[in-house]
Design brief:
The chain has 73 residues and is an all-alpha fold. It contains two helices and no strands. The termini are far apart.
Length: 73
């Protein structure tokens, strides 16, 4: 069945998601307790520190994982 109106599309998607996902009973989720790993210390970020790092960016290098060109920084 082809659905073309917005309401029909919403209902089709809702039906699909309801068929593949289950409803969990939140009252039976166990508590995790304390973490076995140490807490990560806070990181201080200052404007001067950011400026210093940005001034050392080579504009001829390739984009990073964020895909922002170095020349834009």
């Amino acid at each position: 069945e082809l659905v073309s109106d917005s309401l029909g599309k919403a209902r089709a998607l809702s039906s699909q998601f309801q068929s593949v996902f289950t409803h969990e009973n939140n009252s039976s989720i166990p508590t995790l307790g304390p973490s076995p790993y140490p807490t990560i210390p806070s990181t201080l970020i200052s404007i001067d520190g950011v400026i210093k790092l940005l001034q050392n960016v080579n504009p001829k290098k390739a984009n990073g994982p964020d895909l922002i060109p170095c020349t834009n920084l």
